[in-house]
Design goal:
Keywords: Repeat, Transit peptide
GO molecular function, one term: zinc ion binding
Number of strands: 8
Number of helices: 42
Helix content: 55-70%
CATH architecture of one domain: Alpha Horseshoe
InterPro entries: DYW_dom, E2_motif, E_motif, PPR_At4g14850-like_plant, PPR_rpt, TPR-like_helical_dom_sf
Radius of gyration: 38 Å
Pfam family, one: Eplus_motif
Protein name: Os01g0959600 protein
Length: 837
């Protein structure tokens, strides 16, 4: 259907009209414009230039006629036409009419044409100037608003409360505190500052400029207070993050029977949405105020309350509130779906499934999903592990043409990377027409999660090359990549970049730095960074405790735990994992068992497989292998091969071959294709001289197709990261490396012959394992005072462990070797692990 109207020679066309009501509305609007033009044309025919035109019927006066025309104006062009007609036919226009024309200019054209009209007006009053002050204020032109106020005062116009309110609103919008104080001073001089209208504007201005002390003083000295006064103060405290003051004022309002408007209620709800103890009662009180004020049908407030309950983990209350709405719209659905997928709540498949059920309801009700709907639903699929459902949602995203949305793009990347579908994640990234920092961050964090750490660093450098500015989450993900690769130099560069960008003040940034230095083998730098942080959360304390635990500094780790408890920070599962690891690596058996009991009884934390493995390692280190085996049998993790591998390692250390055989067979039943148990059992047979059994174990590995993961070691130097495998000769400095290695081995031969740890089998030191090659390269390039830090992907073998101790003594060097179990600090012929690893 096609409709067209001709007005002033212009054709107005309406295509794809869906209903008669819309057609009628459009026709009425166009007819009103046509009527305005016709009235002006007829009036012009009766007017002579410079002469007063008689009022056309049925209007009693020309003022009434032009006021009627100005109310019908919908564009600046129409207002200008009426203005021209007034200038020609009604030179004696009243001040009221001229102010109405000024208001039309302000409404339709902004302050510039209004300023010209004000300059031309023969007479002006406070209303005239107030209109222009307000127009400048709405455009964010605070200096011009204040200039207009000063101009009115110079012209002898008696400015009123509306003048000051408009000027203060301009200062509020622009955040000009100094100008606001100047207006405040003028209001005091004119005796208008204590009136409720101006005082409310002052409270609003000071609170929006962050001066809550000034806002409260104005509020306290005000002669009269109304609901607006209280609401402005409450909103100011919420904006300033002063929760305690907000709660006090809110309680005073409730006792005084003051009402909260929708804006203030929304602000209070937002404040209550933050995590923290003691705010749930306030949240319920605010909910009661919303119902009492009759605003429980307000979409904005109901959505805010659903969000508030969801952020506190009160999903039952959030769902009940959502279901109490008879006809929820898509905004409420979006809020409820997002509530089910919040990080703050304990997410399980059931909770995520509820979010997907709500999405199905959105479709069944015939609602059109928005970009917020899809981003939340994709997160639900991610949390629940519903990859196939997520792919269907991806198809609907394409159907609704939302694939270019940044947050949806990042949600899709997260979904595919978390599901292990890296190629699909890369494909989503490449197919996106534009990449912002959100999608780049999703790619970097996805690569880190899938242990593609080098790719994560490469993507980070690409994002910098694209001219994008990384945010805090990007930097944190990149720091985790540096920590996993143990590349401290790259991590230091990222830290400098974060400091330059102003991110170093954030606790999460400090936590990432502590983790990076700890994983890179620099426990002193990690401790310094922890002490430099302005504030510490549970993650900070857990990081520094785990750092000292992994480096064998058990007493230091427990000292930090005591400081954490004294600081009233509640430890979590990760904290106790660090504490138990410290006790395990330090041989503190009784203390470790006591902390394990404290975790469950005093803090109500459920032990995980990692906690139980630490206890097994703790008992195994003390030689209490029977107790360790009994602990496993009584544990809920008795069918997990990880915990049995810990016992097998203890059997190897204590040379309990009989128990080790039984444990190894148990692991092979649970995990027949893992090489770890075969390798440990093979080495146990060799240590016991059972060469035939060792050979059978190797044959069994071949029969079952079990392949040992190749060992890889790497070291970071100024010129970059250098990696090695056993017997590697691909390095450009290979000749110098092997020469240096031969020199070191020849120097330790005399020590080795007198060292009881070195057996004949172990004297074959020319089997150049990867960590020895990395240490040799470090000896070549690093100064005598610098420790040599080497990282390895597998547990260090006994031969290399003994060799490192001897090299540290003969070369008088500190060697730090990281394997998957712990850090080994070799100094003067001994290791921090006390030969138990």
């Amino acid at each position: 259907m096609r409709l067209s109207f001709f007005i002033e020679g212009r054709e107005y066309v309406c295509r794809k009209v869906r209903c008669d009501e819309k057609v009628g509305s459009l026709k009425k609007k166009l007819e009103s414009k046509q009527e305005l033009t016709q009235k002006l044309t007829r009036a012009s025919s009766r007017a002579e230039a410079g002469a007063e035109m008689p009022p056309p019927p049925p209007f009693p006066s020309l003022d009434a006629f032009y006021l009627h025309l100005l109310r019908a104006c919908t564009s600046l062009r129409h207002a200008a036409a009426v203005h021209a007609h007034i200038a020609r036919a009604h030179p004696a226009a009243s001040l009221f009419l001229r102010n109405t024309l000024l208001a039309a200019y302000c409404r339709l054209g902004g302050p510039l044409p209004a300023r010209r009209l004000l300059d031309e007006m023969p007479r002006r009053n406070a209303v005239s100037f107030n209109l222009l002050i307000d127009a400048y204020s709405r455009e964010g032109l605070a200096p011009l608003s204040l200039e207009t106020l000063a101009r009115a005062r110079r012209a002898g116009v008696d400015v009123d409360r509306f003048s000051y309110a408009a000027a203060l609103a301009a200062c509020s919008r622009a955040g000009h505190l100094r100008a606001g104080r100047a207006v405040h001073a003028l209001a005091i001089l004119d005796g208008l500052s204590s009136g409720v209208f101006v005082s409310n504007s002052l409270v609003s201005m000071y609170s929006k400029c962050g001066e809550m002390g000034e806002a409260r003083r104005v509020f306290d000295v005000a002669e009269e207070r109304d609901d607006v006064s209280w609401n402005s103060l409450v909103s100011g405290y919420v904006r300033a993050g002063a929760r305690e003051e907000m709660v006090r004022v809110f309680a005073m309002m409730r006792r005084g029977g003051m009402g909260l408007n929708s804006f203030a209620l929304g602000s209070v709800i937002k404040c209550c949405s933050g995590r923290g103890d003691g705010t749930m009662d306030i949240a319920e009180a605010v909910h009661g105020c919303v119902i009492k004020a009759g605003l429980d049908s307000d979409v904005f407030l109901v959505s805010a309350m659903i969000d508030m309950y969801a952020k506190k983990g009160a999903l039952v209350e959030a769902a009940a509130l959502f279901r109490s709405v008879q006809e929820p719209n898509v905004v409420m659905f979006n809020t409820m779906i997002a509530g089910f997928c919040r990080t703050e709540t304990v997410i399980g498949k059931e909770v995520a499934s509820e979010a997907l059920t709500l999405y199905s309801e959105v479709q069944s009700r015939g609602m059109q999903p928005t970009e917020f709907t899809f981003s939340s639903v994709l997160r639900a699929c991610n949390l629940a592990g519903y990859l196939e459902f997520g792919k269907q949602i991806h198809g609907q995203v394409i159907k609704y043409t939302f694939q270019e949305d940044d947050f949806i793009g990042s949600a899709l990347i997260d979904l595919y990377f978390n599901s292990g579908c890296m190629e699909d994640g890369f494909r989503c990234f490449r197919s996106s027409p534009k990449h912002d920092i959100v999608t780049w961050t999703a790619m970097v964090s996805g690569c880190v999660q899938n242990e593609l750490h080098e790719k994560a660093l490469s993507l980070f450098h690409e994002s910098l090359g694209a001219g994008l500015k990384p945010d805090l989450f990007t930097i944190s993900s990149v720091m985790n990549a540096c920590a996993s690769l143990a590349v401290a130099r790259a991590g230091e560069q990222i830290q400098c970049f974060a400091t330059k960008s102003g991110f170093d003040r954030f606790t999460v940034m400090g936590n990432s730095c502590v983790h990076m230095y700890a994983r890179s083998g620099d426990v002193d730098a990690a401790t310094r960074r922890f002490q430099e942080m302005e504030s510490h959360d549970v993650v900070s304390w857990s990081a520094v405790i785990s750092c000292h635990a992994q480096h064998g500094c058990a007493r230091d780790a427990l000292h930090f735990f005591d400081e954490m408890v004294d600081a009233k920070v509640v430890p979590n599962e990760i904290t106790f994992l660090g504490v138990l690891t410290a006790c395990s690596h330090g041989g503190l058996v009784d203390e470790g068992l006591r902390y394990y009991e404290t975790m469950t009884k005093d803090y109500g934390l459920s032990p995980t497989i990692k906690h139980c493995t630490c206890v097994v390692d703790l008992l195994g280190r003390a030689g209490r292998l029977a107790d360790a085996e009994a602990f496993i049998s009584n544990s809920i993790f008795h069918a997990d091969p990880v915990i049995w591998r810990s016992l097998l390692a203890s059997c190897r250390i204590h040379r309990d071959l009989e128990r080790g055989q039984l444990v190894a067979n148990r692991i092979m039943e649970l995990e027949p294709t893992s090489s770890a148990s075969y390798v440990i059992l093979y080495n146990m047979y060799l240590d016991a001289g059972e060469l035939s059994l060792a050979s059978k174990t190797r044959d069994l590995m071949k029969q079952r197709g079990v392949k040992k993961e190749p060992g890889l070691s790497w070291i970071e130097l100024k010129c970059g990261v250098h990696s090695f495998v056993a017997g590697d000769k691909s390095h450009p400095e290979s000749s110098a490396i092997y020469t240096k290695l031969e020199e070191m081995l020849s120097r330790i031969e005399k020590l080795a012959t007198t060292d009881t740890e070195i057996s004949k089998r172990e004297q074959n030191l020319m089997n150049c394992h990867s960590e020895k090659l990395a240490v040799a390269l470090g000896m070549i390039h690093l100064p005598q005072s610098a420790p040599i830090r080497v990282m390895k992907n597998l547990r260090v073998c006994r031969d290399c462990h003994s060799t490192m101790k001897l090299i540290s003594k003969s070369e008088n060097r500190e060697i730090i070797l990281r394997d998957p179990i712990r850090f080994h600090h070799f100094r003067d012929g001994s290791c921090s692990c006390a030969d138990y690893w």
